Amino acid sequence: MELALWLVPLAGGAAALFAIWLAYDVLRRDSGTDAMQEIAGMIFEGAMAFLSRQYRTIAILALVTAVAVGVIVGAISEGVKPIVSDGGTISFGEEEVVEPWEEGLLTGIAFLVGAFCSGLAGYIGMFIAVRSNVRTAAAAQHSLKDAITVSLRGGAVSGFLVVALSLLGVSGIFLVYSRILDNPPEIAPFLIVGFGFGASFVALFAQLGGGIYTKAADVGADLVGKVEAGIPEDDPRNAAVVADLVGDNVGDCAGRGADLFESMSAENIGAMILGVAIFATTGDIEWIMFPLVLRSFGIIATIVGLMSVPLFADDAPDSKQDPMTPLNYGYYIVSILSVAGLFIATYAMLDDSWHWFFFCGLVGIATGIAFVYITQYYTAGSWRPVKEIAEASRTGPATNAIIGTAVGYETTFMTAISIGLALVISFVLGSQADIAGVPDFTTGIFGTAVATMGMLMSAAYILSMDTFGPITDNAGGINEMSGAPASAREITDKLDAVGNTTKALTKGYAVASAGLAAFLLFSAYLDKIKERLGIPLTEELPIDLANVDVFVGGLLGVMLVFLFSSLAIRAVGNAGGAIIEEVRRQFRADPGIMAGTSRPDYAAAVDITARAALRQMILPGVLAVGLPVVVGLIFRYTRDSSVVVGGNEYLDASGWLAVAGVLIVGTIGGIMMATVLNNGGGAWDNAKKFIESGGLKDEAGNVLGKGSEAHKAAVVGDTIGDPFKDTAGPSLHVLIKLLATITLVLAPLFIATGADNVRPAGGEDDDGAGIERSITDEQAAR
Amino acid sequence: MELALWLVPLAGGAAALFAIWLAYDVLRRDSGTDAMQEIAGMIFEGAMAFLSRQYRTIAILALVTAVAVGVIVGAISEGVKPIVSDGGTISFGEEEVVEPWEEGLLTGIAFLVGAFCSGLAGYIGMFIAVRSNVRTAAAAQHSLKDAITVSLRGGAVSGFLVVALSLLGVSGIFLVYSRILDNPPEIAPFLIVGFGFGASFVALFAQLGGGIYTKAADVGADLVGKVEAGIPEDDPRNAAVVADLVGDNVGDCAGRGADLFESMSAENIGAMILGVAIFATTGDIEWIMFPLVLRSFGIIATIVGLMSVPLFADDAPDSKQDPMTPLNYGYYIVSILSVAGLFIATYAMLDDSWHWFFFCGLVGIATGIAFVYITQYYTAGSWRPVKEIAEASRTGPATNAIIGTAVGYETTFMTAISIGLALVISFVLGSQADIAGVPDFTTGIFGTAVATMGMLMSAAYILSMDTFGPITDNAGGINEMSGAPASAREITDKLDAVGNTTKALTKGYAVASAGLAAFLLFSAYLDKIKERLGIPLTEELPIDLANVDVFVGGLLGVMLVFLFSSLAIRAVGNAGGAIIEEVRRQFRADPGIMAGTSRPDYAAAVDITARAALRQMILPGVLAVGLPVVVGLIFRYTRDSSVVVGGNEYLDASGWLAVAGVLIVGTIGGIMMATVLNNGGGAWDNAKKFIESGGLKDEAGNVLGKGSEAHKAAVVGDTIGDPFKDTAGPSLHVLIKLLATITLVLAPLFIATGADNVRPAGGEDDDGAGIERSITDEQAAR
Question: Which chain B residues touch A567 with a CB distance below 8 Å?
Fold first, then answer.
């Protein structure tokens, strides 16, 4: 506990201070010429206007949801009971220590705190990001090193704020709910699950709204500019070009920040819940605090790694260095220091079995590194998949789209193998840990949690690299629009290409962490059900796939993934169509725009996109929140499966069984689908870039570059992939976590409790079916 | 039993005789002018050449697999034990009645018989189909009624042969393996699972090879003809046009026939296995024979319905009747007679609880009808989804593709809801049946089996309508290429459009039946495991999703669905590219082709497509067969989960647990993915047709028809959808069923048996974990 008490606030505070220093460092730099500042000003205004508008909408939704969650939990829960261990079984006490109304209130407050922290991190991070772009553009006129330093530090503001607010938020609310409100520490994790739900809730709408905005603007600008009017990307004559630059920020920066904020929060809380079972037996609070400590070491490792990046960057003004190189070195440093931190944390906190969990953490760190390479293989131009799409572009947009789809589907292969291996290995390693009175199953699951936390140690670094993407993209746009010298544009183009890679890596990282975390979050849901039903934590609660409720729940879970993706993608298509019409209208209304004599109305395009995006985010968001609840309620009240655990038969279990099916099969489907959408989109994008860089030649050996039919086909493919990789895919990461947190918080809704619903197994009505019985049987038993 | 003894051979024989009469009736008709016969001859030769070549490849693969399966089963099985009931539990006897070597031999032979019957049905059916096309073309010069009659009867040859061979095959081999070899009737269903595996095996390669061929030719012909050269569909100057017409037959006719053959066979055998548990208690063989009897009544209903279609067709030569109308009337007749047959069969065979199963069958028939409407809503031009895609074509191919993808994903919604409802309702109805000594769970599952069989009663009719598609498509092509009068072409165009609808319906029907059957096939797999482990059939065997092996198996199952789809789609893209190059080459080499003075080399294009398609079918086929086996073996030998059932703990269960995860989560993913691919592709196709029929107008009110930019965009979308709906989607139906049959047959591979692997639950090593324990624990126990 001592380690946690001083390290966690120290690391959280250090991260926050570091973010402030980074912001100061970026803001004091040269902000370029008047022309650059004018364009940057438009981007800044458009981005902040969108974000304010979006957060107003989200705030209203979040307030309503917080009250609803608080009231529901308060009304239906039966209070939280303490946890007792008799050495062999870990079970719940008789008397509740937290009243139902108090549980509802605390859950509602935690929801709001989580939502607020998520929003705050997104807001400040983006505020700095849209001030960093013009400074990166100006720095590019000096050297590559300066440009990398500014853009990475601008991105790191977001990265460190997200990590700091998540760590301080989770540990702060844990401290308040346990120490200050004087609750036993082992029940506090159950009280703070609202924090994760609040964070997921904001992340869902932030990612959806931002993702729809960015791709509607991008698709619209590309189609009407590059394809129809034949003017280059970021050409100032295109009315959609500022909206496009705004979109990069609100989607990639604010959206992904919220995504990883909730990932870290939800996985942290889930891991703490799993630690409860071990704490109850051993009495060592370290098992609950461990995830927070590991995250703290991760922050320290990340600060050092990030500061070291400029050391590896080439200072020469005509440098030919690949900007990915210094970023990679920084990541290696983060990884090495993370291993050291993992060693200290496990050794200091996890008793005699520390080494098994150390190995679990290594598996997580290795999985993170593996995904960096897997994502590169599937989406970078130097490998087979992207080249295959480029080749298919020779025969037109249809074959490009067909092969692109095939590549997207293919990318599930290494993803599933890696996640599966990581899960099995960390589970096996964890189950080797020998802790008296704790079943191997529990330490195994805790092993997967340690792997997840190990992987997330480098989250701040990954997120810094991600936000680096929109900043450099913007910097390139500002230089293009303001007519900066060619050398500066060359540097920003190079950085932009790296930004595309880092954005893809972040998504791969997010999917992998979601895959690893799925298992631990699912176990937390089962622990919550055990708590409600009074089943000892050490008992197995089987979620039987051969049960019709679980099976149909699983079917609906996969359906949710597809329907949600459909709504997200369609939103982009619809909003994109609106912008195209607007730009065409402007071209028609004022021929001076095309001639370059009058300026298009950028603000109108920004505004149309914002309104369309916010309108379109509501339906998929409501679907994601509503479906698990509706399924749980319908199955609870119309079906009546029962489950036998530890000699007792629990009747009316259909509600939570069907929700478990939705949750876990939906999560598997969501992980695979997000992989398809993210990597497919990334591969399409880079196939286009591969052709633009002269990688494709005709039979006579002439380059099929920009303007060729093959290139036009590749542009179509890139456009198809845009909403896949930047709207639906990233929103699916959030959906997966939202499913986990919403089911965790609202579990009592799906559970029939009370003495009527338990009876000894094998009783007079037992006909051998065990798990499943009919309505007649059960009615007869009443 | 008496009913089954005379009805099943009678109905099977009637179906076969009916098919022969239909073939005679079609073949004696007018086969048109010399020009028509010449083109038809080329199609016939191309199709039969492909089929012969394909069947040679499949025959070799099937022989090798049959021997391997026989040897494996013979080597690892422990023989089949009889089933005994003591009124409360249904369990397996001590002494085996079938020796291991005999089980291997019988399984291998059943595999070969299943494979042979499937191949035979496909071969004869297609032989007649490619002779019916020219006769339909000729009949179209007389009247719509004649054309409908010929094409539907030509299609029905295939439909009835498939049903007859499946029914006679399953019942024949059941008779031989029980009566003639003198085995107890309750173990015979376990011996004939090889029949289903053989059928699935052939179906997989037939559907894959045919599907790749048809779409490679279609995509190639469309892109190089319509888009590049600007010549109409089926224009004789296009060298790929004959290959395209050949493809319709080998994909839709032979492929889909094999698909439904194995559906019916596998589901029949699965239903018989479920009937075994009830038979063992009641001693009524009817529970095993029931699925065969229901199918027999279905055949009678279908013959009457099919013969009545011409009665509803308009005889006037200038008829404006929608050809779908008489087909719908015929389907209604089939449905009504099926209900009557269902009533007789349930009443006569299923004891006092017959009415519950009658209701289950009604649910199945209603589900079949529901899917006819659901598929139409999602894929027909008169509804919102298709119009939305057509609208999106205004802004180019990218938005067309984006919205088309969104529509495809959306179609999972009603599909999942309907399948889920049908499963839950039929399960609940079935579990109401009160049969002494049989648990409600078992009658519930049997209820879902009856629903599946009820739905499949109309299979021959659906399949006749399906094969009607390629026949009319071919007839249109023959009329186009031979310069037939406009009135005839109008009729074949109309029939062709209907054929597109019926093809889409068949796929919806196939997906729905796969969804309903998933649950029963999965239960059959669990029964097989119980047989191996000596667990009573009446015990529940939980497949716990919270078990890491099941979870990772599920992840790999969904990955298999995506990877398989990827390989199938890519195969089309690759083969399609090869044909495009060939046609371009011919255009370049001989300018007379475009001028219309010389004939292109059709045979070369046919040949290139055939070779490419057969090469490309191997990899996805091997993946589908290999993955479940590899996963099962790896988990069996590296992991060691255990499962507690009925007071015993079964160790080393990881192999069959992981395979169960692959099977069931993969099935859920496969059903949803097939829906996406089939319906998405169908909607894209009809969006193009919607534009061609003048459904889209510009702002000034002018029709945006053929040749407009919107139409070009829609053609791209149609082309993208082609491999989705005709290659990957239909192959996924087969994959799902193959997963079920292969795991059923090879289950012993994944199961560790013997006394070492069972111990009483709650023993000294039991630490409360119940289902899951670590390697150390178990090693300690040995």
Answer: 406, 410
The whole-angstrom distance between B78's CA and the closest CA on chain A is 26
Q: Which pLDDT score, from 0 to 100, does residue B769 have?
A: 41
Mapping DSSP to helix (H, G, I), strand (E, B) and coil, where does residue B759 land?
strand
Question: Which residue in A409, A558, A774 is closest to B562 by CB distance?
Answer: A409
**Interacting residues of A764 by C-beta distance below 8 A, sequence separation 6+:** none
> What CA–CA distance (Å, rounded) separates A339 from B363?
59
Share of chain B above pLDDT 70, in %: 96
> B484 and B36 in contact (C-beta within 8 Å)?
yes
- Convert the pLDDT of each residue in A345-365 to its tens digit: 999 888 888 889 999 999 999
DSSP-derived secondary structure for B395-462: G-HHHHHHHHHHHHHHTHHHHHHHHHHHHHHHHHHHHH---TTS-HHHHHHHHHHHHHHHHHTTHHHH
CB proximity list for B122: less than 8 A, separation 6 or greater: B51, B158, B202, B206, B253, B254, B257, B258, B261
pTM for the structure as a whole: 0.92
Instruction: Decide if pLDDT at B223 tops 80.
Output: no
Number of H helices, E strands in chain A: 24, 5
Output the six-digit token pair for B624: 């589908």
pLDDT tens digit sequence for B444-478:
999 999 999 999 999 999 988 888 888 998 898 88
Looking at chain A, how many residues does it have? Answer: 782
User: Is residue B625 classed as helix, strand or coil in its secondary structure?
Assistant: helix
Neighbouring residues of A317: CB distance < 8 A, sequence distance ≥ 6: A142, A143, A144, A487
Q: Pick the residue with more confidence: A138 or A395?
A: A138
**pLDDT, mean of residues B415-431:** 95
Name the pLDDT band for A781 (thresholds 50, 70, 90): very low
Half-sphere exposure of B460 (CA within 13 A, CB side): 39
In angstroms, what separates the C-alpha of B416 from chain A's closest C-alpha?
6
User: What's the CA gap between B565 and B718, in Å, rounded?
Assistant: 18
Asked if residues B231 and B596 have their Cβ atoms less than 8 Å apart, the reply is: no
> What is the model's pLDDT at position A277?
80
ipTM: 0.92
What is the C-alpha radius of gyration for chain B, rounded to an integer number of angstroms?
Answer: 26
Residues 6+ apart with CB under 8 A from B695: B381, B387, B390
Residues 6+ apart with CB under 8 A from B687: B381, B386, B387, B389, B390, B393, B400, B404, B714, B717, B718
Instruction: Indicate which of A551, A636, A676, A725 best probes the interface with B, i.e. most B CBs within 10 Å of its own CB.
Output: A551
Question: What letter does residue B764 receive in the DSSP assignment?
Answer: T
